[in-house]
UniProtKB/TrEMBL annotation:
Compartments, record wording: Cell inner membrane; Cell membrane
Membrane-crossing segments per the record: 31-56, 68-85, 122-141, 147-175, 184-200, 238-259
Single GO MF annotation: ABC-type transporter activity
Keyword Endoplasmic reticulum attached: no
GO cellular component term, pick one: plasma membrane
InterPro entries: ABC2_TM, ABC2_TM_bact-type
Recorded topology in the membrane: Multi-pass membrane protein
Protein name listed in UniProt: Transport permease protein
Ranges of residues in domain ABC transmembrane type-2: 32-262
Similarity field: Belongs to the ABC-2 integral membrane protein family.
Lineage top rank: taxon: Bacteria
GO terms, biological process: lipopolysaccharide transport
Amino acid sequence: MASRALAVWQNRQVVNLLVRRDLKVKYQQSVLGYAWSMLEPLAMAGIYYFVFGVLFSGRAAPENADQYGGYALFLISGLLPWMWFSTAMSEASRALITHSKLITTMKVPREIFPFAVVSGKFVDYLFTWPVLIAFVVLLQGKVGLNLLWAPLAMVCQFAFLLGLTMLLASVNVLLRDVERMIRILNRVLFYATPIIYPLIRVQEALPAWAMTIYELNPLVGIFQMHHAAWFPGEAPDTVMLCSTLGWSAAMLVIGYWVFRRLETAVLKEL
């Protein structure tokens, strides 16, 4: 695995070209261009704020939310990283199929194609940070040491997504049902993860055994860390933190293992 990681690093210029090309194609012939990266999460935040913040009188907001910027900031801090996860997962299944000609003609490690998908969406996510900072300033959010949760959340999410993308990309070449399954999974995970509601509301509503099942979702800990960067009360406890780190590392290893095991069959199919 170390030698292949080194090979990806040696071919980082190819990854850079793929990411730049995808961003160029994405905003090509678009009047608003980069602004689209921010408009979609802002529109989603507006809808969820109207439903849960206005119609339900903010009952979905975390405790003491007003001290740290309110429910609007809570929504933005969850929806922006979710857009990174969701768009990367949507393109994960086609990471190899889309580049079939390059894969069969260029002598480069095939891992760079899933890596380019996750990296490209990560760059898109970083482009949205000015919006997040603007919300923090406008809503008088507080910045402190808890902001250190943000880079840890990004590292965990990147590792988890990379493993998941390698797994889905290789399996989808052999079983095209994966694409359809991802659409359903994306919707299920959105509501099964504390993105638009705080974890404490789930703890209040579910019995202990159901809560244990809920917390098996590895995204729970990752999004708790994203929220904790701005809302200290959302920080995961030690058990959840260890579980999240373990899940992220395990998904990376499993995804890589499946990718390597299926590599020969995938090349024949491409």
